[in-house]
Amino acid sequence: MKTPLLALAAFAIISYASYANGQAPANRFAGDVPRKPKPAFPGQTDAPPPAKPSPQVTVEIITGRLTSPWSMAFLPDGNFLVTESIGTMRIVRPDGVVSAPLTGVPGVKVVAAQGLHDIVLDPGFAQNRLLYFCYFAPPKGEAPAQWPNEAYYQQVWTKSLAERRTMAIGTERVARARLSKDNRGLEDVEVLAEGAERRIVFAPDGTLYITGADRFRFYDSKYDGVEHDFTDNPDIGRNFSGRVMRINRDGSIPKDNPWLSRATVLPETFAHGLRDPEGAAINPATGELWVTDHGPQGGDEIDIVRAGRNYGWPDVSYGVQYDFQRTDGRKNVPVGSGATSMKGVEEPVYFWVPDIAPSGMLFYTGDRFPEWKGNLFIGALEGQALVRLILKGDRVVAEERLLADRKMRVRDVRQGPDGAIYLLSGAGLVRITPK
User: Fold this and answer.
1) At 372, phi and psi to the nearest 5?
2) For residue range 48-57, what is the model confidence (pLDDT) as tens digits?
3) How far is CA 91 from CA 43, 103, 414, in A?
4) How far are the Cα atoms of 32, 179, 261, 404 from residue 223, in angstroms, in the given order?
5) From the CB of residue 163, how many other CB atoms can be counted at a distance below 10 Å?
6) How far apart are CA 257 and CA 269, in angstroms?
7) Among 91, 184, 188, 404, which residue's Cβ finds the most Cβ atoms within 10 Å?
8) pTM of the entire structure?
9) At 397, is the secondary structure helix, strand, or coil?
10) Would you tell me how many other CB atoms lie within 10 Å of the CB of residue 140?
């Protein structure tokens, strides 16, 4: 039996932690309205609605019994493999039956926006049963556990950089494993790389892109940025701001990564200057990587990620520092240099002020919704909707909020083998089909 829609809506509006999005508490907008920045080009924000709204859809709740689901993959047998940020993986059957947690999953430290995140299947999964996933590992000697948010935020940014460098907080990791033939556990788990743990995407050449959030704890910053110019040592940003890593499927470094000739930049770094890229997908029209990136207060954005490019954080942002965090009463305090654009920094394709808290990303290529073919879909947590963007080349020409009346905090969005769109929201796995 499918979970009633009202039950899913109840699940969807419950936040398991104030900072679980990598954002400030959801009530931060009470009186905190960021200034509206000037876009760098027409259409970079506030795109008009489409000339023809989307048709009505059918919303089927496959299950509402998950705990903080973060990502999903479609198994060849018709089942769903789902990660829960609390550190568990489960198999969900099409009839809504949810398995016990899979065995063999490495220990996960759940703190603030860190936990167990993306999962993708190897292109040869039907033959080799390999998969890739990313997570936040506890430091040596510390048991897996769920920690209060301040253990990663307030108790870190209030310390000096020297103190932070001796703090054993945990490590971002990407790993490879084999799903057992009975779907009950992981085998042969192998850590491939460290330093990022948000999304994993296969590049057209077969390498892996892994997006990672700003690791503010390793440099003189806090999680909503800095209040000074940050250009004196660019290698700090290349190593510790939100990055996109690029590795081979065995964890080795591709020989054409952009920073291999610079000894002071980590060899896996492909691009940098992001804050918290929680959505990522390959644009099938160009083969390029697109990501969603959380701003601080305002300034959520979409970026096209290219080798060796800088996306600005923590120097440049269309958002501002969090008003709720300030003790001096100031509002709309700039991030970094205070500029929204800077020479040598890539402009986002699109941005939102105020926040929508963008998460999963999907370029729709199926036949189930022919009018949506080529459209870009973004899951919105704070925005509580599925955002549909119509593109013309690399530009957004229209924006539509779908399912907004259902108040669904959409964490992930995927296209299924059947051409339907699947969402993770609240505690639910949801299937969207034409009405």
Assistant:
1) -100, -5
2) 999 999 999 9
3) 41, 12, 16
4) 18, 35, 30, 29
5) 10
6) 7
7) 91
8) 0.93
9) strand
10) 7
